[in-house]
Amino acid sequence: MPSTRIVRRTGGGGRRRRRALAAAAAAAVLTSVLAACGSGGGGVPTLTWYTNPDSGGQAEIAARCTEAAGGTYRIETAVLPRQAAAQREQLVRRLAANDSSIDIMSLDPPFIPEFSQAGFLAPVPADVEQRVTADVVQSAIDGSTWAGKLVAVPFWANTQLLWYRKSVAEAAGLDMTRPVTWDQLIQAAQDQHKLLGVQGARAESLTVWFNAVIESTGGSIIAKNSEDPKKIQLGLTTDAGVRAAQVLRDVSRSGTAGPALSTATEDTTATGFEGPDAGFQVNYPFVWGRALAAVKAGTMDRSVPDDFGWALYPQVDAGTPSAPPYGGINLGISAFSKHVDLAYAASECITSTENQAYYFTTNGNPASDTTVYDDPDVLTVFPMAPTILQSLDQAKSRPQTAYYSELSGGIQEQYHPTASIDPETTPRKATDFITAVLRKEQLL
After folding, report:
1. Hey, which residues does 48 pair with through a beta bridge?
2. Which class would CATH give 3-151+327-394?
């Protein structure tokens, strides 16, 4: 863990005071905005927040912020489809029509550059930017940035950990206090006749896996120029790209990934990790809350989660730090909203330290605010919180480009099924195909 992170994490009281001062500044801004509006309005402005599906946490935060606003605005939520691609499609269609009924949007980070470049996002005021990036993990700031500017407000930041069964790792002789490689995990799973869970379905999760592996080698899916589709240069055929293809192939052909690898998602991988053949998996922190909920419901013995261990994402090459996936949700303020200033004020309430801690402990979605990881309640509910924070410190975004949908779709088509990957030919075929799609010479 970098020494700068250690210094920042030992000063929690100072950070909380700064956050409190920032909240006071935001309140002052809101007061001035309302004063400028005068008294001729038609009642309390309603802000509509389009959210991704969750366990009710965003609706509760909306209610909290409505109450905290003291009648200056109220927030209503509207739930988007479950799949990220469907969320994007619905929002793009409405924003392209200048729909003013959208005020706040929960956005999957890979789609933020597209929304920004299309002019769908209202500029972030400089004072707001200063407050909403205070004590925020860098990966979440990067995921809210396009063309060198912060264009969205960091909210919650997700990442994958390496989950392992303590009993299996011990039997395999793995020292899980030290970084482990994909090759070590394959060998351990084979020796113990256990599963190594990964997400191989032809879905966004496959792009997430491939991106994390290529970034862990020091490479990137986009090697150069992410803005002009005719000039984008891919890094798939570089040494790093070929090495990433080898890792996906080796895991897929190892006999440890399970017979349903080609349709494996985060949920199915989590299910496998709860079973008697469980050994290792890469997955998001939701697997912990899911297991504890099953224990509470009486459908799982407590000994199962008691055997769970967690560590940083696997390394590709020993000694080279891994680059875990970065995900989560950031808040976009619509350029067509009738209440842009109020929407930004609301976004500061939504992403406050208190609300991020609440969302983490109740919905299992990790905070982008680093001060949350000092919260005793968070550490009680998620004892792996320090590992999550370290993972977010090392995490890398998926390619930042307005053409992400074409890029991810091409990766999914060319690298699926992962057991069929040929490191000598697949990277070149994928490069040719995706390049043709970007140049509108071929369809996905």
Report:
1. 76
2. alpha beta
